Amino acid sequence: MSNTTEPSVEYVRIFDTTLRDGEQAPGCTMTLEEKLEVARQLARLRVDIIEAGFPAASPGDWAAVHEIAREIGTPDGPIIAALARANRDDIDKAWSAIQPAAKKRIHTFMSTSDIHLEYQFRKTRAEALALIHEMVSYARSLCEDVEFSPMDAGRTDPLFLREAVAVAVAAGATTLNIPDTVGYLTPDEYGAMIRDLRENVPGIERCILSTHCHDDLGMAVANSLAGVRAGARQVECTINGIGERAGNASLEEVVMALHTRQQYYGLRTRVETREIARTSRLVSSFIGVPVPPNKAIVGANAFAHESGIHQDGVLKYRQTYEIMSAETVGLDSNTLVLGKHSGRHAFRKYLEEKGYKLNEEEFQHVFARFKDLCDRKKKVDDRDIEALIAGEMQHT
Ligand code: KIV
Ligand code: ZN
Q: Which biological pathway (predicted)?
C-alpha cells in the first residue's frame, strides 16, 4: 500500500516524534506500556506519522517500536516510522521493528555540517555523500517510504547542503527532513534554507520537504512555520515540545497556529484538535514533567482570564480576548479566575453559578471583603468564598 498522498492536497503532515526525539529529553523516558498508551492517543489525535523510536538504541526500543507497529499501524492508522543512523545494521533493525505496520517508513540520517563531519564523524564531505547515497539506496531497496535527514543542516554550508539533499533525492528518498539540530537559526534563515533547496535541488518537487526544529533559542515553532511558508509540507514536532535540551517544536502550537490562522497559511492539518489537551496531560503524567502554566495552548492559564477588564470583555463577547476557544483543544470551557484583578462582573457570575442568592447590598459587601482577602492571600478558592458568604449571612 502506498504512503504517498495527492500532491494537490494542501495540507501539512504532522510527524510526531514524542516517542523518539521527545523521549531523548533528560528524565523523559517511558516504559513500553506508557509508549503504547501515548501511541494510541496519538492515533486518536490523528497525526499522520508516528516516529515510534530508534530500534538500534536498545532491545527495549526495538520491542516498543515493534509493538506500536503491530497495534497502531493499521491500514487506516498513521504511518509508523523508525529512526536509523546511516548504516546497514541500524537500517535493518528499523526495518524489522516496523514490519507489522501497514504503512512503514525508514528514517535515516547523516550529519552534513563541517563541525559534525570533522569532530564527530571524522569523515570528508565526499565520504559523507557516498554514505548518504549508499544508505538511502539500501533503505529504499527495503521500503518504498524513506525519509532522509541531513543532521545539523542549519549549520551546513548551503551549497554542500544542496549537494547532500540532491544525492538523497537521486538515491530514492521520498521525504527530505531539514533539521535545525541545535536550534541556531532564525525564522528568516530557516525559511530561506527550505526555499533554497526547493529552488535548487533537481527532482525535489517529487518529494515532501519537512521541518525539524529545536528550541534552543525559543524559535522552534516560528522556524517550523517559516519552513511551511517556504514550502515544507511536513512538520516534525512533539507533544508539549519535549525533546533534546530545550526541546522540539511543540505539536499543539504548530497545529493551532495553522488552524487559527488558516486564512494566513492557506493550509490545514488532519489533526483532531479536540484531543490536544488530553494528549498533553497524558504525556506530562507519564514523564512526570508538569506543563508550565503559561505554556501556549495547553498551559493551565492558556484559557484563563483574571483581570477585571478581560473578564468583563469575555463575559460580553468571548472573542474580545480569545483568538481560539478552549473547547477546540478539548477543554470544557475557558475559566475566569477569581483574584485581586477580578471585577464585579465576574464575581457576580461566579456567585450565580455556585447558586448563591444575595441582594445588592449583600453582594457589594461580600465583594469588598473578597477584594480585601485577595490582597492578603495569593489564591482565593471556593472555600474562602463560602466563608465570606457565611460571615455576611451572620451579619444580616
Ligand atoms: O535534531 C536532529 O537532527 C534529529 C535528527 C536525527 C533528525 O533529531
Ligand atoms: Zn531532533
A: Amino-acid biosynthesis; L-leucine biosynthesis; L-leucine from 3-methyl-2-oxobutanoate: step 1/4
21 lines ligand 1 (CB under 6 A): yes
Distance from Cα 244 to the centre of ligand 2, integer Å: 7
Residue bearing cell 534563515? 189
Contact (CB, 8 A) for 21 and 248: yes
The pLDDT of residue 102: 98
Distance 281 CA to ligand 2 centre (A): 22
C-alpha triplet 18, 302, 350: angle, nearest 5°: 140
Q: What is the mean pLDDT of residues 222-246?
A: 98
- Cα–Cα distances (Å) from 214 to 88, 197, 245, in that order, read 27, 20, 8
**121-161 confidence digits (pLDDT tens):** 999 999 999 999 999 999 999 999 999 999 999 999 999 99
Long-range contacts of 357-364 (CB under 8 A, 24+ apart): 358/389, 358/392, 362/392, 362/396
390 contacts: CB under 8 Å, gap ≥ 6: none
The 10s digit of each residue's pLDDT in 283-310 is 999 999 999 999 999 999 999 998 999 9
Each residue's pLDDT tens digit, 54-95: 999 999 999 999 999 999 999 999 999 999 999 999 999 999
42 class by beta-carbon count within 10 Å (0-12 exposed, 13-18 middle, 19+ buried): buried
Q: In this structure, are strands 208-213 and 175-180 parallel, antiparallel, or unpaired? A: parallel
Neighbours of 387 (CB within 10 A): 12
CA 286, 292, 296, 299 torsion-angle sign: positive
305: nearest Cα among 333, 270, 332: 333
What residue's CA is closest to ligand 1, atom 1? 181
**Residues comprising the binding site?**
21, 212, 214, 248
Q: Count helices and strands (H / E) in the chain.
A: 15, 10
Distance 111 CA to ligand 2 centre (A): 12
What's the Cα-to-Cα distance from 293 to each of 223, 240, 287, 378, rounded to whole Å?
Answer: 23, 12, 17, 16
pLDDT value at residue 9: 44
Atom of ligand 1 nearest to the CA of 109: 6
**C-beta of 212 in contact with ligand 1 (< 6 A):** yes
